[in-house]
Amino acid sequence: MRNRERVLNLSLALFNQQGIAHVSTLQITTELEISPGNLYYHFRNKEDIAKALVQEFDQAVSRMRSEFSHQVNTLDDYPAFLLSLMTLLAQYRFVLRDLETLVLGEPDLKRCFGHLYNSLKALNQAMFDHLNHLDALSIEKEDQRFLADNSLMIAIGWINQLSMVNNTDEHTLILRQGVSRLVALVQPYLKLT
Amino acid sequence: MRNRERVLNLSLALFNQQGIAHVSTLQITTELEISPGNLYYHFRNKEDIAKALVQEFDQAVSRMRSEFSHQVNTLDDYPAFLLSLMTLLAQYRFVLRDLETLVLGEPDLKRCFGHLYNSLKALNQAMFDHLNHLDALSIEKEDQRFLADNSLMIAIGWINQLSMVNNTDEHTLILRQGVSRLVALVQPYLKLT
Amino acid sequence: MRNRERVLNLSLALFNQQGIAHVSTLQITTELEISPGNLYYHFRNKEDIAKALVQEFDQAVSRMRSEFSHQVNTLDDYPAFLLSLMTLLAQYRFVLRDLETLVLGEPDLKRCFGHLYNSLKALNQAMFDHLNHLDALSIEKEDQRFLADNSLMIAIGWINQLSMVNNTDEHTLILRQGVSRLVALVQPYLKLT
Amino acid sequence: MRNRERVLNLSLALFNQQGIAHVSTLQITTELEISPGNLYYHFRNKEDIAKALVQEFDQAVSRMRSEFSHQVNTLDDYPAFLLSLMTLLAQYRFVLRDLETLVLGEPDLKRCFGHLYNSLKALNQAMFDHLNHLDALSIEKEDQRFLADNSLMIAIGWINQLSMVNNTDEHTLILRQGVSRLVALVQPYLKLT
DNA sequence: AATGAATGAGGGTTCATTCAT
DNA sequence: GATGAATGAACCCTCATTCAT
């Protein structure tokens, strides 16, 4: 049962670096020093590994959704929460980057992708609802929807910037820049107190 | 010389539909009813086709950049311009979607991608500079940079939405939705007149 | 000791449906909800299962051989006996169908196949000898040998027809058709009384 | 275009010796000293090779059907014709032996098999019709149908005997024995002249 | 008797690319 | 400009079998 997790861990790292398509099952098994058959004992095929990771991701997003109403009590908590969200997205960035697979992949994997996207949207919407509740924002219903859409896309877009940079040291810098943009997005709607 | 263009045209369509990696050179040659050798007479390799398309795209972006200061004279012209820009991005959407290739591709193709991204950023920046000049926006320098970044990401993000929908009829609808979000992004900074 | 029989029973069913080569040991163990190791505790390898079934079959044939001189007392008993024989062959039809394994299998399994074929031939020969004894046939020695050969091949050939039909309801029909042909084969040699 | 035929020739030999399933594409390409890709340039997959051979076989059977009414003018010509037919069947004996593939194969290959079987049945029926026409047989309609069925099964059954013998020298002997049985089958219905 | 993770050889197939004509 | 047969490396995956527990 150990090897299953080792495969997941390594696959996550390799998928993030190179993309699902460019990671071969042989590469995974060779680096882990296990037999190809062992990988296929734990997973039906390569997509099955991706599916498991997407589901892990999905659960983490859902967990974050249920936690954040406790963590964010004033507007000052918002940036810190965004950073932890962005950090999570960065951890599974191969998912957000690989639309090709999303479009053309097996229906099974496609469904998982779809579910994850909905989780992300839901989290985003809930976030703005909460901020509204805290009486931190002054914004109309329609505008809030647009804001939520834009917010998600900027978050994803900024995560994708990570993939263009090999140097891991710059990653935290980029994440902070992303957070800045997301904060700036809300700026105009802040309620003056 | 005819076949070169036919390859480019079909490749663009197929790349948009399926992604570079999922389009084989054999598929291209078969659909065009030409020989594989013929394709390789016109292009050094598959990436070479992609490169040519990226450059086409890049030039179209640059052309748009030089045109838009004539086309946009008041804020009312902005949405129409955005729509034509989005339409262009949609035409070459495989480029904006396929970060995998950008990350792992040959340095040659990578450079072309990079140049295109810079062109897009430049166009975006220039757009906001122009709007500022027209005295339509009231915005600080720093905020303007953030706005430009966000604007580009939302545009790209919305283009990627296209790829998740097979129905081509919905495409124009999605493009309009994208424009709405981009307009909404600027809304808070409009100068009241 | 229970599981050994369960493996044999399921294997027989699966071998008949799909052929030895297309049934994996994993399929057997999964359907029985036992571990692969358990299967290999009871059988040295997959062929060993087949061998056991062939031997079961062989014994059933031999038993039938010793019984039939009691069961067939007049020519009128012949069709009923043929039907019970055909039913037995149908039960183990994977054996009669799979000449590939016979040709290329391990010598051990090959020997079992060979022994079974001899049992079948012997049963057939004995059948005609008996009919002759009953004074039901008028046939020369040489013709009788040919008749026995032909009879066996038609029986096997008709059993193989079963495998081409998925619908189990038709099986009894096909068996009856086979019996008809076998009876027709003897028709010309009946003694007029 | 040469290699296509070489693949077909060698595959026929290997399929007859070892059965489709036990012949690997690598074995074929290695023995022919061509690349695996070359084989897949000429054939879509391994079954495609088998399909081509079955169709070859089918055509040969059909050709024989149209020829035999010229070749068989008296009953004395019958054995010679049977021998040439048996020789043809022997040439493609892997087809008649491999019911496993017939049962479980792709629908495409299955259809080809089915067509071939019909051709064989048609040839057989036509044969007996012709003999009847020549006024060589005295047989009733119903009996003739049974005779035709039995004849085909004996022919196939005897061809399968070939596969159990490695020594190629014995093959002609076995073929002759098969012919003898087939002739013996008709014996009882000969018209006395 | 039984488990189940692990092995590893082997097989079918794809595809970008070359090159003689 | 164009053809199309040929290459060969690479990949995904299967499955009979083993063995420590």
UniProtKB/TrEMBL annotation, chains A, B, C, D:
Coiled coil: none
SUPFAM superfamilies assigned to the protein according to its UniProt record, in alphabetical order: Homeodomain-like
Residues annotated to bind DNA: 24-43
Gene3D superfamilies from the UniProt entry: Tetracycline Repressor, domain 2 (1.10.357.10)
Presence of the UniProt keyword Oxidoreductase in the record: no
PROSITE patterns: HTH_TETR_1, HTH_TETR_2
The HTH tetR-type domain, residue ranges: 1-61
Keywords: DNA-binding
Protein name (Swiss-Prot/TrEMBL): TetR/AcrR family transcriptional regulator
Organism of derivation: Corallincola platygyrae
